[in-house]
Design a protein that fits this description.
Layout: H1 8-25, E1 29-34, H2 37-40, H3 42-57, E2 61-66, H4 69-78, E3 85-86, E4 89-90, H5 94-118, E5 123-127, E6 134-138, E7 150-155, H6 161-165, E8 169-173, E9 175-178, E10 186-188, H7 191-201, E11 206-211, E12 229-231, H8 235-240, H9 248-260, E13 265-270, H10 276-281, E14 289-292
Parallel strand pairs: 1-2, 1-11, 2-8, 5-8, 6-9, 11-13, 12-14
Antiparallel strand pairs: 3-4, 6-7, 9-10, 13-14
Helix pairs in contact: 4-5, 7-9
Amino acid sequence: MKEVILSNADRADVLARALPYIQRFQGKTVVIKYGGNAMINEDLKIAVIRDIILLSCVGIRVVLVHGGGPEIEGMLRDLGRESRFVRGLRYTGEDTMEVVQMVLCGKVNKDITALIQQSGGRAMGLSGIDAGLFRARRLRPDGEDLGFVGEIDAVDAAPLLPLLNSAVIPVISPVALGTGEDAGHSLNVNADTVAARLACALKSEKLVLMTDVRGILRDVRDPDSLIKVINRAEVAGLEKDGIVTRGMIPKVDCCTLALDGGVRRAHIIDGRLPHALLMELFTDEGIGTMIAGDEP
């Protein structure tokens, strides 16, 4: 991508135009789910991290929830283990859960935390196990066994508040502490769901899901058919009309979960585009799809 050189006047104009958005969101909490190609491509990774640090520097309380599917897949492959999926969810046996926890809580989480620190931000890496952030039970859709895949029962966001009050960015891996029959065991939880539940618990202003698609497309074959803004009440109609389908359904469901839990806005954006976060949050036009909560 060719670098665009801005004059000093252009740079000043960009900052001035961003001021109303900075003032609007200063002191508010934004939960960002970070995954997909934006985590794999090194240039994109650095751009995303810098954007997150910028949000924190202007007074926005940022929580970063990360995935790590490709990294888990790569580690399993290196260990000679096959991945098995049930209804699109990774079957997580005991041996696989050890790998999941090692990759998510150890490598990926600490790599992101270190990159934030190296780039001039302040971050603390945590998993859902730490301080009892997330408690979960096994997910068994229609009685199917998924192994150590969890469904969140409870979120305790209180341990994050001192970090946010100190302008520290919590970096959260989606591993939860099991309850009931799985007490003492770790459970693998969907990162989008973790982000949505955490956004509710923190009474966040926004939930942002960074994906590998532009957002909700009215026609999946036409990348220019992006739906930029919809209301919570319109979601069911889009699903009924077949506009929200396949892999977009669980992402939209996470957005509606957050909105129903008190989050004001949910965004689905393309993390493959440099500075997608800033363009979505600091411009009227945005770059992805924003789902607005129904006004009381």
